[in-house]
Amino acid sequence: MKFLHLLSTEASQSITLHCLSDPPYGTTDGFSSTGPSHRENTRLRFRGWNKQIFEKDTLLEPHVLQDECKIQDGSWHQSRFLFHTQDSRQLPIVDIQDLPTGPLNSQQHIEISPVCFL
């Protein structure tokens, strides 16, 4: 990995969070009839190779390409994030923190693309 970091001037990677949940029945803490409020209450954070944190409203904010996981209609949805940096030592993403939680019957899986070193 060190060799790739030394030879590269930029890097990019994408992460897709796939989520499935049934529509909520009634109102519970953290959820409403229009969907979860986890995006406002929890910040999804990504830790890079050099231990720097990518999160919303920071210099290392990931580009949000799609954000549909707040929709709870019983179908699969996805939220897609793109990481592009001119410091190649920041990638790959090695940890995802504060993943949103849904109802007990919800499901999630994460799809992590390979890093493209340029």
TrEMBL record:
<dbReference type="Pfam" id="PF01410">
    <property type="entry name" value="COLFI"/>
</dbReference>
<dbReference type="GO" id="GO:0005576">
    <property type="term" value="C:extracellular region"/>
</dbReference>
<dbReference type="InterPro" id="IPR000885">
    <property type="entry name" value="Fib_collagen_C"/>
</dbReference>
<dbReference type="GO" id="GO:0005581">
    <property type="term" value="C:collagen trimer"/>
</dbReference>
<protein>
    <recommendedName>
        <fullName>Fibrillar collagen NC1 domain-containing protein</fullName>
    </recommendedName>
</protein>
<keyword id="KW-0176">Collagen</keyword>
<dbReference type="GO" id="GO:0005201">
    <property type="term" value="F:extracellular matrix structural constituent"/>
</dbReference>
<feature type="domain" description="Fibrillar collagen NC1">
    <location>
        <begin position="1"/>
        <end position="118"/>
    </location>
</feature>
<keyword id="KW-0964">Secreted</keyword>
